[in-house]
Every structure is written in structure tokens, then in C-alpha cells.
Amino acid sequence: MAPHDLLVDQSNAANPASHAHQMAATKLASVSHRYTANRRAVVDALLDLPGPATIGELLQAGEGLAQSSTYRNLVVLEQVGVVHRIVTSDDHARFELTEEITGEHHHHLICDDCGTIIDVLLDAEVEHALEASLTRAAAAHGFEGAHHRVDLVGRCRSCQS
Ligand SMILES: [Zn+2]
Ligand SMILES: [Zn+2]
Ligand SMILES: [Zn+2]
After folding, report:
1. What's the gap in Å between 50 CA and the centre of ligand 2?
2. CATH number given to 105-161
3. Fold matches, 1-104 and 105-161
4. 1-104 has which CATH code?
5. Residues forming a β-bridge with 97
6. CA of 149 to the centre of ligand 3 (A)
7. Cα-to-centroid distance, 106 and ligand 2 (Å)
8. Average of pLDDT values for 107-115?
9. What share of the chain is helix, strand, coil (3-state, %, to 5)?
10. What are the boundaries of each domain within the chain?
11. What are the φ and ψ backbone dihedral angles of 65, each rounded to 5 degrees?
């Protein structure tokens, strides 16, 4: 292995953001789209935010993001599998990076009243049991390449008062 390769590997491990940008650029390139400064800024904003964000939250978090181009770029990024759109009961779609981009699997607590979404991790043994059970269900119906999304819908703390 050349010293240069080693450097790249280390920076990936130490810097999830650079890994996310590389993956995003690769996915866009595979369908002949460019990873423009604006698309990069959208990914940066999503990396900074603590959980799934509305367009409004994204525009606040990102530097110099314009609403119209951000919306168009989110559509493109969703099509190539960089961004995941979550639709809740309040009609405001929320956006986050896909698990393929972040390399992290998680679940959601969704507030049925205000649409807030909180990212949560389940115990490893629960994930394992869930995956085993769902894999059996998928096999019974001939499903291939299945992955799961399990969200808990309820009311967040601030909507209870
Ligand atoms: Zn709420
Ligand atoms: Zn999430
Ligand atoms: Zn899971």
C-alpha cells in the first residue's frame, strides 16, 4: 500500500464528513451529476444538524443556501440515495442523510402532533432479533435486499404540556 493510500484511509476513519462527501460525489457521478458547491453545502448542513430537518431548518443551518436551489438539490440528492425524505403527519417533510452515507443505522421517534423527529439507537440485541425476524418474513415472501425502518409514533415532550 502506498503511503498516500494510508493517509486517505486514516482521514476517512477520523472524519465521517469527508467519507460522506466522497460517497455523495460518487453516487452523483454514477448518474452524470456534478457534486456542486450548493449540493455539498446541503450535505454539510445535514451533517451538522442533530436529526432530520425541515427545509426551513436546513436553510438556517446551511450557509448561503437559497430556498429554490436547495429544494431542487434535495430532490436530486434523494434520487441518487444521498438524502432520505421522511414524511410525517404535519405535512412538513424532513430530510436526513441516508444510512448508506452516514454508515449508521438508527430508528425514529416521530411526534404525531408537531412532526418533530428524534433519531434513536436500539440495543444491539434488539436490532439483532428484529433483523432475524424480519429476514424470515422477507424470505417467506421472496423479498430480496430487504432493510428495515421502524419508527415509533407518539407525542414529544413539548406537545404534552
Ligand atoms: Zn411534538
Ligand atoms: Zn434519522
Ligand atoms: Zn433497526
Report:
1. 9
2. 3.30.1490.190
3. no
4. 1.10.10.10
5. 83
6. 6
7. 6
8. 93
9. 50, 15, 35
10. 1-104, 105-161
11. -85, 130
Among the listed residues 107, 102, 109, 116, the one whose alpha carbon sits nearest the alpha carbon of residue 57: 116
Distance in Å, CA 7 to ligand 2 centroid? 30
The single-letter DSSP state of residue 134 is H
Distance in angstroms (rounded) separating the CA atoms of residues 17 and 141: 38
Q: pTM for the whole thing?
A: 0.84
DSSP 27: H
Q: How confident is the model at residue 1 (pLDDT cuts 50, 70, 90)?
A: very low
Q: Are strands 83-86 and 94-97 parallel, antiparallel or unpaired?
A: antiparallel
What is the signed CA dihedral for 78, 80, 82, 88, rounded to 10 degrees? 20
Is residue 25 within 8 A of residue 35, CB to CB? The reply is: yes
Task: Name the amino acid, one letter, at 32.
Answer: S
At residue 7, the pLDDT reads 44
SS3 (DSSP) at 111: strand
| pLDDT tens digits along 64-106 | 899 999 999 999 999 999 999 998 877 789 999 999 999 999 9
What beta strand segments (E) does the chain contain? 83-86, 94-97, 107-111, 117-120, 151-154
